[in-house]
């Protein structure tokens, strides 16, 4: 029998299976146990799964943002190897034209100005290459973290401080409401 909340479970599964490096072990263990428990016995309401996603997401966010920052840096540093080399020659030329006009790989990742510049077929090919490039960049970033995690730890602290500021601001806004 299929799970009554497949989409929420897919999000929780992705969170549990694709953990950023150095994520706190107690939280990751708890997330895995929660996922397994929800698989065995479906909760009565979807918001129980969503609450778990939010709770674990809040713990993992600084780690995930730090990893994403390093992945983006890796993609910029080795754009040719991770991305451009995966494109068919015609699309590679269109991408280079776009670059000459001021576009960038980061613009593609963020979807800035893409829809007006590329055909739907070209966007599909670009998306395929972006997915492969992100996976390749993620692998390279994780290897770099395994070799020397100082920059990653610095970014984690930076995002933890930002998260703390945001939570303080939200708390202040709630008091005003």
Protein model, in words:
This protein is mainly alpha-helical. It has one domain (6-176). The protein contains eight helices and no strands. The protein has helices at residues 6-17, 25-40, 46-77, 79-82, 89-100, 105-110, 120-147, 150-176. It is globular, with a radius of gyration of 20 Å. The N and C termini lie far apart (44 Å).
For the structure shown, list the relevant keywords.
177 residues; mainly alpha; 77% helix
Report the principal-axis shape: globular
Radius of gyration: 20 Å
The major pleated sheet works out as: none
Classify the helix fraction into a percent range.
over 70%
What is the SS-derived class?
Answer: mainly alpha
Give average pLDDT, whole number: 94
Number of helices: 8
Distance between the termini: 44 Å
> Order of SSEs, N→C?
HHHHHHHH
What portion of residues belong to β-strands? under 5%
Short description:
The chain has 177 residues and is an all-alpha fold. The protein contains 8 helices and no strands.
List the helices and strands and how they pair.
Layout: H1 6-17, H2 25-40, H3 46-77, H4 79-82, H5 89-100, H6 105-110, H7 120-147, H8 150-176
Helix pairs in contact: 1-2, 1-3, 2-3, 3-7, 3-8
């Amino acid at each position: 029998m299929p799970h009554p909340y497949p989409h929420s479970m897919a999000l929780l599964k992705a969170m549990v299976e694709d953990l950023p490096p150095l994520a706190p072990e107690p939280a990751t263990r708890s997330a895995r146990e929660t996922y397994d428990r929800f698989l065995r016995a479906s909760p009565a309401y979807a918001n129980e799964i969503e609450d778990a996603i939010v709770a674990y997401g809040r713990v993992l966010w600084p780690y995930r943002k730090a990893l994403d920052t390093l992945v983006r840096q890796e993609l910029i540093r080795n754009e040719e190897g991770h991305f451009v080399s995966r494109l068919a020659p015609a699309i590679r030329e269109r991408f280079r034209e776009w670059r000459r006009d001021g576009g960038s790989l980061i613009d593609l990742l963020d979807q800035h100005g893409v829809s007006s510049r590329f055909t739907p077929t070209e966007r599909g090919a670009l998306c395929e290459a972006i997915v492969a490039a992100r996976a390749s960049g993620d692998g390279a970033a994780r290897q770099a973290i395994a070799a020397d995690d100082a920059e990653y730890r610095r970014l984690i602290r930076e995002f933890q401080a930002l998260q703390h500021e945001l939570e303080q601001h939200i708390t202040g806004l709630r008091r005003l409401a």
